[in-house]
Amino acid sequence: MFTPLSAKGIVASVGYASGPLFLIDAATGTYVANGAPDTEAARLHAAIAQARAEVATLMSSADDDSALILEFQMAMMEDESLAAPAFAAIGGGNDAANAWIAALNKEIDGYDTAEDSYFRARGADLRDIHDRVLRALTGAAALRAPAGAVLFGRDLSPTQFLATDWAKGGGIVLLRGSTTSHVAMLARARGIPMLVGVGDLQAANDHFVLVDAEHGKVTVLPDAAERHEFLKASTAHLQLMNLARTQMGEPAVTADGAAIEVLVNVAEPTDVDRIDPEICAGVGLMRTEFLFNHGLPDEETQYAAYRHVLAWAGNRPVTIRTVDAGGDKPVRGFTVEETNPFLGLRGIRLSLSRPEVFRVQIRALLRAAVIGNLKVMFPMISLASEYAAAKALFDEETAALAAAGVPHKMPPLGIMVEVPAVAIAPEAFADVAFFSIGSNDLTQYVMAAGRDNGAVAALSDVRHPAILALIEKVTRYGAANDISVSLCGDAGGDPQAIPFLLRAGLRQLSVAPAQLPLAKAAIARASLHG
Ligand code: PEP
Ligand code: MG
After folding, report:
1. Bridge-partner residues for 380, per DSSP?
2. Among 266, 356, 348, which Cα is nearest to 306's?
3. How far is 168 from 80, CA to CA, in rounded Å?
């Protein structure tokens, strides 16, 4: 008899799902080779053209997030170097299907084994391209999961996600995957429960499965007790979500009456289009790495992005963070190869080492500051001298814009507190305008546990006394010196962490928009004195 199995995973998108498992492996069909290199090459050209046409059709009806992902795939397919090794192999006598498979698998391997989780995540896009062209070559039908299924496999491609009918629910369980992948972003945006980094799981197509993407657990062929437990937890979650949504427009106040400001984190400028500004106190973190996804953005591109968010916010504050490239967020042509990128040339360290790139962003920010209530912060600050050097560049660019008669304004400049050195000795930063605690990185650096590594995920808990003590140290220092302190890491939106964060002195949290209802509900239940 089959033993019911369960496994732990990392939550990439919160929620509960149950349904039949659907194994996500590409259908390859059969390919009958013609043999003549010219014919084989023509077939491959035609298959790539068909794949591009399919992606173009998907793009025409895609929302902004999906369109960006499809654009990335289109750009990969338009790049002739992608298929060049396949055409060379065809010239050497190979058939189109085998040449394509070998060439793409080599490329996919490169991405899969990349040190950076960003590049590993892009492997799913390449696998998608591989399958799409292969299907065009072989005439195989695309595999489509039945509505309500739980997709299970090594990794999921973005177009598999987009081709899936999520109207009846469903979920995603991946053996590998990462919380920073394109698919994870899509799942969070659509509210599809998703677990990644799940260990070995014995399962087959159609096995009934329970996905608890609140506590990070998947159970195959559950017994009655497990079903009961799941029903209880998922019903509680649903009730809480429904209640939380109805209270989303109200100010956040703890059970004992303390007012808490809740702001949102955004990345893409268009993220704000889906948010009613009335439900939040502004933007607590705009990550600008996203603008650097397709190379280094020019001043006008950046200015337009910042202007869009500031115009949406009106008088509400918008805190834009200068680019935090490096670590798990590499940028081609900017970040450098490192053996340990989380401890390397990342964030402000990289920006200061490439002032010609940094100045472009600074000018765009100074110009955008005229539009609304802008605040700017620097990521990965360790030393006061880094803050001083960044501020000096802001002063220099201010003078240059003034001399050129370009409208501009100096915004308040603050720092992320995410390197333990800063939290341990905040008094070195008496002249910053504000602190914003980056609990994601602060936790990984305090616990020595990589934030992208499922094997050590259990160590990454902001409620560890060492981390809470550091947060409290910063909030106390801020209160005594009139420097505002907020928190913009993912812990700020975690209902279980929120009471601990408030008791550590935080009164301002910035959370992912999807986390906002539950965060506000958790604040309403919390009391500051335990
Ligand atoms: C953090 O480290 O908590 C943070 C908000 O920054 P990021 O997740 O972008 O590194
Ligand atoms: Mg960080």
Report:
1. none
2. 266
3. 40
Do 370 and 282 lie in one domain? The reply is yes
Which is nearest to 344 in space by CA: 325, 322, 359, 331? 325
Query: Which ligand 1 atom is at minimum distance from the Cα of 488?
Result: 5
- For the segment 60-93, what is each residue's pLDDT rounded down to a tens digit? 777 776 777 788 889 889 988 999 999 998 998 8
Q: Is 393 found in the same domain as 323?
A: yes
Q: What is the pLDDT of residue 2?
A: 44
Lowest mean pLDDT among 67-76, 132-141, 394-403, 470-479: 132-141
* Tokens linked to 154: 């090594």
Question: Would the CB of 201 count as within 6 Å of ligand 1?
Answer: no
Count of domains forming the chain: 3
Residue with tokens 């609140």: 214
Q: How far is the CA of 209 from the centre of ligand 2 (A)?
A: 34
Same domain, residue pair 361 and 509? yes
What is the distance in A from the centroid of ligand 2 to the CA of 387? 16
Atom number in ligand 1 closest to CA 437 = 3
Q: In this structure, are 17 and 43 located in the same domain?
A: no
pTM for the whole thing?
0.72
pLDDT band at 181 (very low <50, low <70, confident <90, very high): low
- AA identity, residue 486: S
Report d(CA 338, CA 55) in Å as an integer: 35
Displacement of CA 247 from its chain's centroid (Å): 26
Report the alpha-carbon distance of residue 163 to residue 407 in Å, rounded: 46
Query: Is the distance from CB of 82 to CB of 64 less than 8 angstroms?
Result: no
Return the pLDDT at 316: 98
pLDDT value at residue 325: 92
